[in-house]
Amino acid sequence: MGFQDTPEEWQVTATVTPFTGNKTSVRTDDVVMPDGSVHSRDYQVHPGSVAVLALDADGRVLVLRQYRHPVRHKLWEIPAGLLDIPGENPLHAAQRELYEEAHVKAEDWRVLTDVYTTPGGCDEAVRVFLARDLSEAEGERFAVAEEEADMEQARVPLEELVRGVLAGDLHNNCLVVGVLSLTAVLAGDGVDSLRPAEAPWPARPFEA
């Protein structure tokens, strides 16, 4: 393909980390511009995430409603979570999140899409999986806490979610990207055209 994003790294003359949190940090780099000038760029350093668009046999998507304090909203989302372990296999992380947040497992997994959520201010990379052939997970439910203790769960037809996105009623990045990507896939070359679940991910390299 000739039309694609390409890796590139401009020279950094200095870097500091003025804030370090539990999962993320803030970094300031002094970056050399094409004209030779140097300017500071602040951004959040993020471990990366996975998200799961879980589609059941009736064409419904499993969604969760969760409070998100930075935007002061309860958002409908698809199951998602951080890559807590450096080099962690993203498929394993996605399977874990689907189990922990929804107590669901899936037999068929594909890579739906890979995105940088906010590349102007954060290096977060997200891999969105398509999961099908759903069933209830075995064993006890994962013990949730904090915001997750207030989560609601629903299964919503894909078409209804698309309408909500286009109407401006649904705003979660992974949900928006996921449902629009799946709609394009179903209208195009079909699910079998998607990349396998273990496809390479240069943004967050992992061991199979």
Automatic annotation (TrEMBL):
It comes from the Bacteria. The keyword DNA damage does not apply. CDD domains: NUDIX_ADPRase_Rv1700 (cd24158). Keywords: Hydrolase. Residues 44-178 form the Nudix hydrolase domain. Pfam families: NUDIX. PROSITE patterns: NUDIX (PS51462). The keyword Hydrolase applies. This is NUDIX domain-containing protein. It comes from Streptomyces mutomycini.
